[in-house]
Amino acid sequence: MNNARSIWVTGAGNGLGLALVEGLLEQGHRVAASGRHGEALDALAARYGSQLLRLPWQLHEEHQAAQASQQICHAWCALDGLIINAGTSDYLADDVADSELFEAIVTDNQLAGEHCLAKALPLLAKGDSPQVMAVFNRYSALQLHAPTQAPAGWNNMPQWMREQRQALKAQGVELTVVGPQSLKTPVTPAQAIPEAWTPQNAAEELLRRWPQREPELVLEVLDLNGLWPLSHK
After folding, report:
1. Average pLDDT taken over every residue of the chain
2. Rounded CA gap, 34 and 58, in Å?
3. How far apart, in whole angstroms, are the C-alpha atoms of residue 36 and residue 218?
4. What are the backbone dihedrals phi and psi of residue 103, each rounded to the nearest 5 degrees, phi first?
5. Residue 89 · residue 231 · CB < 8 Å
6. What is the dihedral of CA 32, 212, 127, 174, to 10 degrees?
7. How far is CA 164 from the centre of its chain?
8. CA of residue 207 relative to chain centroid, distance
9. Is 222 helix (H, G, I), strand (E, B) or coil?
10. pLDDT tens for residues 116-172?
11. Using an 8 Å Cβ cutoff, are 150 and 106 in contact?
12. Distance of CA 23 to the CA centre of its chain
């Protein structure tokens, strides 16, 4: 593939993240995958060989995000794309209480997103038409604090990501934020109706839209556990 790109996908062990990895590999791209170890990723590694780079996956820990970016640097020297699957439950502790589950999904994904973006940015700055896509679900897009106020970077991860847009653009990096429609700050006047997305057709649609480099995409999902399995227990 002459236009093969180097793309890092997080939350890649199952669900939507895994489907994105598989779709990118099928298109001939080089993929760095941060996801829990499992048979599905092992099978892709056996099938695609060096086209798939396996990376540390506990990215809410800064040192693991740093190790992942170092591996990418050693393998490819640059990065053309980063897909932050910010709905994953990969980072949940095994003993997290059910009452703390949603807050843990939000906070762990926020840490992972911040670490990955910071560590990937020097590599993206050297990439070819680099871009970032951050994908949120109804859980990870929650506004944890001051719910009566408008979303802001300190209390809402999608909004924090949007606030990085100008700095990214200054380095030539385009940003697409994907997530459920916000009632407070809708990104489209059209009504967004939840659909019965599967990991495969959601990944196919996101990868179809990826080259268009749109600032915002709405993804409303009926079965969140289908795209983002709760795998902490």
Report:
1. 92
2. 8
3. 27
4. -65, -40
5. yes
6. -100
7. 15
8. 13
9. coil
10. 999 999 999 999 999 999 999 999 998 887 777 778 888 899 999 999 999 999 999
11. no
12. 14
Exposure of 137 by Cβ count < 10 A (0-12 exposed, 13-18 middle, 19+ buried)?
A: buried
Q: Write the CA distances from 66 to 27, 32, 63, 108, integer angstroms.
A: 27, 14, 5, 16
Total-model pTM: 0.94
Q: Pseudo-torsion of CA 121, 124, 129, 133, nearest 10°?
A: -60
d(CA 202, CA 221): 9
pLDDT of residue 187 exceeding 70? no
Q: Where are the alpha helices (DSSP H) in 14-144?
A: 15-26, 39-48, 62-76, 101-124
pLDDT band at 231 (very low <50, low <70, confident <90, very high): low
Tokens of 102: 């949603």
Per-residue pLDDT of 55-83, as tens digits, reads 999 999 999 999 999 999 999 999 999 99
CA–CA distance from 126 to each of 32, 165, 174, 175 (Å)?
16, 17, 13, 16
